[in-house]
Write a structure and sequence with these properties.
By secondary structure, the protein is mainly α. Helix 1 runs antiparallel to helix 2, helix 1 crosses helix 5 (about 110-125) and helix 2 runs antiparallel to helix 3 (about 70-100). It has helices at about 5-30, 35-65, 70-100, 105, 110-125.
Length: about 130
């Protein structure tokens, strides 16, 4: 059985970095006149879903890395990729269907892990492209 400690460690570090991005998104949407409660629910739901999606991706990467058969590893990654896209579509449909959550507030945090990883990579390089 694979050891997922690296996934939980990375998720912990990412969570600390994603929270400021979520707060910036929240503040901008409220300043743009979006309803406070709907924005709060949207940012919370989008951020939690993005972190959960990152966790699922990490687990599938660890499972694939533990495989000795490259074909099986490739299938694990492809299946996980497809499943995460389906889950994202279901999440977005649920957000739209409820009508109680700001759609932009739920969608924008989905990009926050990518944004934070890009920023942290840029800072590690000392700001050099």
């Amino acid at each position: 059985m694979p050891d997922y400690a690296i996934v939980t460690d990375e998720l912990r570090r990412l969570t600390v970095r994603v929270i400021p991005v979520a707060l910036v998104i929240f503040g901008l949407l409220v300043l743009l006149g979006q309803p406070l409660g709907q924005v709060a629910l949207g940012v919370l739901a989008g951020t939690l879903f993005a972190l959960w999606n990152f966790y699922l991706m990490g687990r599938s990467a660890v499972r694939a890395a533990c495989q000795t058969n490259p074909g099986r590893a490739s299938k694990i990654v492809a299946r996980s990729y497809a499943m995460r896209y389906v889950l994202t579509a279901l999440f977005l449909l649920a957000v739209i269907w409820t009508g109680r959550i700001s759609v932009p507030a739920a969608v924008l945090p989905l990009f926050s892990p990518k944004i934070t990883l890009m920023i942290s990579h840029y800072w590690k390089k000392g700001g050099k492209p």
